[in-house]
Amino acid sequence: MSYVRVSILGSSPGGETWSINPVFDPTGEFPGGVDQANLDTACDAIAALTPNAFLTGFMSTSLQITGAKVEVRDDSNDALIAISQSVRGTPLSGTTSALRGAQNAIVLSLRTTTPGASGRGRLYWPAVGTGVDTQLRFGSGAVTDFLSGMKTYLGAMDAALTSAFTGIAFDLSVRSKTTLTTPHVNKLQAGNVPDTQRRRRDAMIEDYTALSYP
Q1: Cβ–Cβ under 8 Å, residues 41 and 159
Q2: pTM (2 d.p.)
Q3: Handedness of CA 43, 48, 49, 54 (dihedral sign)
Q4: What are the pLDDT digits (tens) for 42-91?
Q5: What count of Cα atoms within 13 Å lies in the side-chain half-sphere of residue 78?
Q6: Which of 97, 155, 126 is nearest to 10 (CA)?
């Protein structure tokens, strides 16, 4: 058996990169192995998806979605079976002014019926363009809109995979590299406290200011 790892690829000023990486579990094996043309079709379709205004509003105009990558990996050992990467024809920018630092994110929690860490997942979506209230939290309406937007966006990725691989359905899942299991997601949730995606700074060039002491 195998699973599919989708990466939505993004960029921001200064060469900084970010991504979200949901996993989808196919309901059956790919007949005769993974057809590269079908994988390319799915990847192109996913790269071209436009998340709704709730999600692009969180991003800010400083951030862009630049493409997608789709990997098929072995369920038993995570070995790479096939890969496709697609550059979005025109990068998609967010729609609001930057209000927060580049590491700020809102987190989508993925829940399954499997107890423990192996049954939970997280996706960090940029929250550079969204303000907070006097309690330093996202408003309840913004969180509800985020959940709705992510459900639609993830569903569109699922539909792109299903369309490319006729006869195979896909389930949004969580992949545990510890237990080598891929339990299916049955609930999405998000909190109203801004989080930090530290990995988003890996490619960021930082300017330093120094002062002699004493």
Answers
A1: no
A2: 0.90
A3: positive
A4: 999 999 999 999 899 999 898 999 999 999 999 999 999 999 999 999 99
A5: 9
A6: 126
